Amino acid sequence: MTGLDQSRRMVVVGASAAGLSAADGLREAGFEGSITVLGSELHHPYDRPTLSKGLLLAQGEPELLELRSAERMEESRIDLILGRRAVGLDVDRKYVVTDHGDALPWDAVVLASGGRARPLTTDGGEVLPVLRTPDDLRALRQGAARHGEVTVVGAGLIGLEIAAGLSAHGVAVTVLHDTALPVDRIVGPELGQVFFELHSQHGVRLRMLSAVVSVGGVEGDYELRLVDGTIHRTPYVVVGIGVEPDVDWLEGSGVALSGGVLTDAAGRTNVPGVWAAGDVARSAHPMFGDPVRVEHWTHAVEKGRHVGLNAARGTAEPFAGVPYFWSDQFGRRFQSFGRRRDGDTMFVAEGSLDAEEFLVLFGADGEFHAAFASGQSRSLRGYRKLLARGARWDEAIDLARPANPDLADSVAR
Ligand SMILES: Cc1cc2nc3c(=O)[nH]c(=O)nc-3n(C[C@H](O)[C@H](O)[C@H](O)COP(=O)(O)OP(=O)(O)OC[C@H]3O[C@@H](n4cnc5c(N)ncnc54)[C@H](O)[C@@H]3O)c2cc1C
Predict the structure, then answer these.
(1) What percent of the chain lies above the pLDDT cut of 90?
(2) SS3 label, residue 258
(3) Mean of pLDDT values over 172-189
(4) Could you tell me the CATH superfamily of domain 9-116+243-313?
(5) pLDDT band at 376 (very low <50, low <70, confident <90, very high)
(6) Which DSSP string do the residues of 234-257 spell out, in sequence order?
(7) Given a cut of 70, is residue 96 above it in pLDDT?
(8) What is the DSSP letter of 271?
(9) Domain boundaries in the chain?
(10) Distance 292 CA to ligand 1 centre (A)
(11) Ligand 1 atom closest to Cα of 281?
């Protein structure tokens, strides 16, 4: 396979973690041709995870953390076009068409348009606030200050970070969630209970099994109708009910879409020269049976770079990075490698769930699936290595043994 000809043109759609890392990967592999990165936001590329952490907590005006300085972009000879949205991809004539009516020619293209927050709309047609961009952050901070009371719909990681950040500002927070415990889809019921208690202890009111069926009213007096028939009144709402891949602009382009842009493990779509990475991509992965869409920052960075390297070199190296995420809530850091699956056994490898620091493992049928830590667990990286080489549950338990002198041999294997 040959790489990209040095006189060729590379276009990246999406100027965030995955897109900029793809551009880095291209240069790292020695690609000398032109690289254009197109981003629909007007802001210079910034660090998104800080929106629900340091920037939400900030007392004064929050300052965005930039992803790449303008000098670094210039040194890497990356043409950044901001404030323009790709509205079409012509795979025959090889153009990205923008909402300004221009057509950017490409010899290869990386689709890194990420995700957007799943919307919740009121009966009157108002799309309720979410937190995905700096403008959302400004609106949320102002809304919370105006009313002193906020309802968060959805107790996923972002919903919980918002709840923690707002309550640190003295805002009265209620969280409404559809299942029995917060974040249980990601971390399971035992850890869901840990998050429930953490938030309750800090005064956040959590209403579980309280899916929102519809919303009436306007800012200052919303009426949220819940699945049990009750009505929750609140002056301000922010919604964190998941992320959808930003793929509308690719409909009809010929690129295969199914729950995201479908790619192989190398990041190639069904169309030659068209690659995808980050939150928008649903990709084959050696650790998982079905293609997965990973919505984590580090994954977007690593996969973006990987796709850039492959595209420049003309290789199809599979990406096998272990999914990782972190979350900061009430001064505690939570981190996880791998992916817990429904029905997994959970094993407490270090500490205990009622302490600030602990590490737990997830697995089933002799397979090791994920490790999750609260606090600065130094051993987490050891489990990452095991996950990376597809180690079995026994090996994970063996790694846990020194920290668990009393570990019974009866631990489920
Ligand atoms: C508030 C918040 C907190 C988070 N915290 C964490 C965390 O703690 N840990 C973690 O692992 N992950 C976290 N995440 C998730 C993480 O931010 C994402 O996984 C990551 O940003 C994905 O990067 P991406 O480049 O694939 O997509 P995105 O960051 O979504 O960027 C895609 C970019 O493409 C642009 N775009 C979309 N469509 C088009 C188009 N048609 N034309 C041009 N441009 C387009 C978008 O405007 C956007 O700027 C958080 C996300 C949010 C919103």
Answers:
(1) 91
(2) coil
(3) 97
(4) FAD/NAD(P)-binding domain (3.50.50.60)
(5) confident
(6) ES-EEE---EEE--GGGTTSS--B
(7) yes
(8) S
(9) 9-116+243-313, 120-239, 331-403
(10) 16
(11) 26
